[in-house]
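BUG: 3D viewer hangs when loading the predicted structure for this chain

Environment: internal workstation, default settings.
Expected: structure renders.
Actual: progress bar stalls at 90%.

Input used:
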Amino acid sequence: MRCSGETGYHRGFDIAPAALMIVDSRGKISYWSCAAQELLGYASSEVLGRPATFLLVHEADPLALPSGLRQAAHSWQDGIFSAAHNSGRSLQLAVRTLELECDGASAWLVAMQDSASLRASEYRETAARCLLEKSPFGIAILDSELRIKWANAVLNHMESKSGEKPAGDARPSPIVEKQAKEVLETRRSVTSLEKDNSSQRPGAETCEHMRVRSSFPLRGDGGLLGVIHAALDIPDVDAARDRLSLLNAASEHIGSTLDLKRTVHELAEVLVPCVADFVAVDLLDSVQMPVDAPTGSVQNSDILCRATHLSIKEDHPEAVVGIGAPARYPQKSPQMSALATGKPVREVIRPFTPWLAKDPLRWSRIIRLGVHTHLVVPLRARGVSMGVVTLMRWENPHPFDEDDLLLVEELVSRAAVCVDNARRYARQQQAALALQTSLLPHDLPDLSAAEFAHRYLPADAEAGVGGDWFDVIPLSGARVALVVGDVVGHGIHAAASMGRLRAAIQTLADLELPPDELLARVDDYVVRLSEEADATTNGELIVGATCLYAVYDPIERTIVVARAGHPGPAIAHLDDPVEFPDIPAGPPLGLGGLPFESVEIPLAEGSVIALYTDGLIEAAARDIDIGFERLCFALAHPDRPLEEICDTMISALLPDRPFDDVAFLIARTRALSSDCVASWDVPSDPSAVHTARERTAHQLAIWHLDEIVFVAELIVSELVTNAIRHATGPISLRLIHDRVLICEVSDGSSTSPRMRRATTTEEGGRGLFLIAQSTQRWGARYNAQGKTIWAEVASPASGHP
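Structure tokens produced before the viewer hung:
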């Protein structure tokens, strides 16, 4: 057993819960408490009358206990003893001893506690003391009479600023008293938030901040003892809240579109007047083109251009350059420094600022306005410098501080990402638009069959370039094919898909297929492209498309139309209302295996037929019936110039910024008179060849085409001879005097003609070769009755009808 002196348990040792025993002058135990029995495991009957040393562990010094008791002669003596529990284990006990006088003899009162539990209790007490005295919270304890019994220094400081200093039994401030009274009445905690405009020190600038107060009941064994009140000051909460609100507003306001100019102006709108009195955003010209911005340091060839600026003054007196003009700064200016280093620059403006002295115009305006601070932040995203943002203050008397710099850097960094996205999107859209424009027809052909006009309006930046297209394809027999289509989706893939479909339709049109059969072939082609796209990693080449294909015949004055999921045409008659003919819709291209159907519609000369994509009638998200009504209005009076009709369609049906691509093609039909067409039936007799040549020469003389009689006779002779020899009847010959002379021979056979190279010993086999060498073009088309071989011969300029 050992005994030590001071152990540091003066504060934590409480006699009430301690285990007690009394040791008489003989060293024997004369009293044993219940707490001692619980602590050491011995009943009173086992220890009373026994020497106290039996409680020691075997290796302990038996003289330590008597020595320790004798040291507690006139006051409490502390120590640590190694005692043996009844179970055999060893305990470290914190012990306090005090000498007693009993019947003229000495005795000792010994109080014992487990040392580990005592140290934990002392730790809790120390932590509670630090919380009350050292924490940033102001804390006070009020009794049930609402008098302050204790208050820490923090609360004393808070209340002293308003002229009140709490003291013992003092009354609290009215707001504390009111809150504490509510706690006593409701037995619940109460929290409040209040503004405090008191200054931090006499003569200091008023600092508006918030104070949070919380009061809660103080309970003990005897019930409700009082109220504990805690208060905490949150300085500059309004400024922090304003900055947070500004950041939230910026996240919603900046980057609302993918338009580059709009994005930088949105940044300026956020900064003025909340942060600065004037803001200018200067972008590198390479950013606004758009092309890839230079990485790393700024190249000398890349200059800054003013993208936008905004001021608290309407006339922008601070602006030295206009929007869109080059923004030239001196070499040592903050703008050039920020652009080169990628770090912000914050400086105080004085009349003798070195870099400003080299720019007299900028110096005069800044000094005249009284600009006192200048903040320049680089506009960077993804490691690329795209420009600088310049902020100035003069109306706001406070200079830019570190908080302002952090706020502006955050706002500019968010805007920089939006600017970079807008730049990249603009570059992609420009590439897609260039691709799409290159794939669309630049000039429509000048044909006798019809007069044409068209419009293509790409969507705005929100939707991107789409896959709308139109086409006019000359066919044989003075006919013309009209095409309008729309590839699903937007962007460069849609534009590329549109180009592939347009090329496919042009190729199939040369085969002179009927509209329904042509769409069936195109549908098969789209299915194959879709399967190829699915096998690739991106799978975005073809998603689907709609198309309308129509063939107008100026001789028969009819139009044959088939559509694949596309809106039908609108026909404006000269004497009747605008008509929307009922044409079976057909499935969109790419579904595969479903049939298409053609409809033949008679057309009077001078009628206007309009083919369009769905973006025209569905613009502005209105009801489609309204779109059709406005289209009828725009097509009324078809005798107007076609360009005027196009302008009317745009103004009547489209908003300023359509959300989808719009393409439409309008055609005013013409007709070839009967004087320009001559036709004869040809018997299946070789002698009919001579008659066909004579009739051809006679008809060309009537049309004043004597210069091409020889070539025409040769073509007619070869075509009629081939029909008589290799085909079946009936055979017919037709001559058409259009801008070229068209020779057509029809028969009842579906056998395809084939040009071949005859050997030197063969007497035949050179007919089609001679025709190909003598004509502008030739070909064959098929119908239900057989086929027609046609050839076109250039007419002399004087022979045009």
